Amino acid sequence: MAVTRQFLTLLTLWIAGLVAMPAALAHPFFAMDTGITGEPVEVAQKLSDLGYDGIGASGYEVAPLVTAIEKRGGRVWNVYLTLKIQDGVPAVTAPLRKLLADLKGHRSALWIAISEVSGNREELALSALKQIADEAKKSDVPISLYPHAGHWLGRFSQAAALAEKLNRPEVGVTFNLCHWLRVEGDIDPVPELAKQAARLQFVTINGADGGDTKTMDWHRLIQPLGKGSYDVARFVGRLGSEVKWDGPIGLQSFGIPGDQQENLKASMAAWQKMSGTLDGMVFCGYQGWFRVPADGSNNGWSHYESAGKFEPGHANIELWPDLTEAGPDEKFDTPFRNADGSVAQVFSSVKVETVRRHFRWMREYGIDGAFLQRFAAPARDPRYREPMDQVLAHCQTAAAAEGRKLGLMYDLSGLKTAEFPSVIEDWKKLRADGKLLLDGPYLRYHGKPLVTLWGIGFSDRPESLDEWSQLVEFFRGQGCAIMLGVPCYWRTLDRDCIKNPRLLEILTRIDIVSPWSVGRFGTPDEAAARVDKLLKPDLAWCQERGLGYLPVAFPGFSWHNLQQGRHVEAKMDQTPRLDGRFLWSQAMAARDAGLKSVYVAMFDEMDEGTAIFKTSPAPPVGDTTFLAWPQLPSDHYLWVTGQIPRLLRGEIPAAFPERK
After folding, report:
1. What digits encode the pLDDT tens for the residues 499-558?
2. Is the CB of residue 179 less than 8 Å from the CB of residue 145?
3. Sign of the C-alpha dihedral, residues 497, 498, 501, 503?
4. Taking CA atoms, which of 35, 256, 432, 524 is between 20 and 30 Å from 569?
5. Is the model's pTM score more than 0.85?
6. 268 close to 51: Cβ distance less than 8 angstroms
7. Which three-class secondary structure state does DSSP give residue 3?
8. Cβ neighbours of 80 (radius 10 Å)
9. Torsions phi, psi of 152, nearest 5?
10. What φ, ψ does residue 198 adopt, rounded to 5°?
């Protein structure tokens, strides 16, 4: 056990030295040179531009590549060698000595695959490995045994047994998914990895098919990441949750046909979706709060009505939904009339077909998932809680069916300080009743289910910081990652934020900070000005503390009808959308600040005019005015939103996209 602890300590320190990135980002991700060729400078440039953390190299002459990769801020994580171990042949050769000398000080490991051993003698292999380890130790180069299908050292368990017999802290093992599938078949590798976690140094992955993998060709066992039927994303998630390992992961690309750049780009996009971060993804808020008298919810015209009425002259919504694709059971008549005299219709969020269609739109337009808003105050009342549970069930089913991610966001607006424990009660009841499922499509962050608590620190409500702190500790105890929705000016504790520095202390105990920016600015120039004034300093603060940062973007803002019901005058189209250019300016600002993901508010928020889903270009006419853009297709803002992750991943230029 002493050796195991020593190895863990050494490996932890070694990897810590290798990772030049915020502490919150798990699993450095590098590309193996099986998928990229070219001159060192060219290779380093391509990998850096695509977001890889470096390369896994091979051969004895790697010094120029090491220099080029490090100049671009990356790392040569390891160098692969295939050895034949024979009687009378020195294990340590002149080329090997030179290679080890070249790697000294660069924190690279030596990947050793063993193709042959004279007489199939394990003791000979152990002797040779001991000699190599002795020489490598002089240059502080760790050794990682690399099992390879068809080689003498072909099984992961065999490599782990050799490392155990060598009993040296600097010698560990690599797990290769494609070789495991070829040698062991499609059986679960996680139990074996958990047993050997103390000596696990690297994992390599790629897209692959599942099934009878022992008989498959390599073109099915090695595909771009994101391709194939094998659930690589689940495997990566289990590395953290079950193996308790967060070390470097390499991309195997041997023999993959097609353009190398495109393969690497596609694999990086897939990695960003499965790696436990939100990088390269865009999410939206999903209110799911619209009700109609005929939907069985007993909630009346919830979020449609104003001053108790939903009729011409009384409406809570600023936009009118486009129901062109809705089925007859999803359309509900209203007292409003269209320009041709026909009855205007709306939807209800408790209809399963409607929710499914909304998540289908997310998939079709490239939106990665949604945060379902769960309002803590009305959830205390069974009349409202039951329909909310229905919407939750529909969202979980739809997210799974459409391949989207779903996270739960508790909005504590309107909740009194004494009522904060109701959030914990609500969570416990959802879990006990089996209504909230934390597997499948549920959004995870570093292997943990992500729960968002929205509303801390706003100056228009009681501080309740003791209660907020208790909520954070409860959800930490539940094994959850936590995102807090905070005011726009949280870091400086001014303007829309309370001035209590204890807020910042609470933020150091969570996982992601998400500032609310809706209504805080209103032009593309103001969005651009936020890069240096807010976004970069906010991001730096979070990175210094190992926290994620997810800013909010919004397409525009208008709440004339809602405020009219409160007897307050508000301008129609208060923050103009500019045909999508306002939203795009915020995406550009996020990119310029170095951010990789954003949260778009909102998918279906018609009340404050921030909805991005399909809205009618020809809403009802009469005593109530609705915001509309007849010059644009109804799906325009869905389409623009779907271009944002492509911008953040570097797949398209910065100019406002032109739709073909």
Report:
1. 999 999 999 999 999 999 999 999 999 999 999 999 999 999 999 998 999 999 999 999
2. no
3. negative
4. 524
5. no
6. yes
7. helix
8. 22
9. -55, -45
10. -65, -30
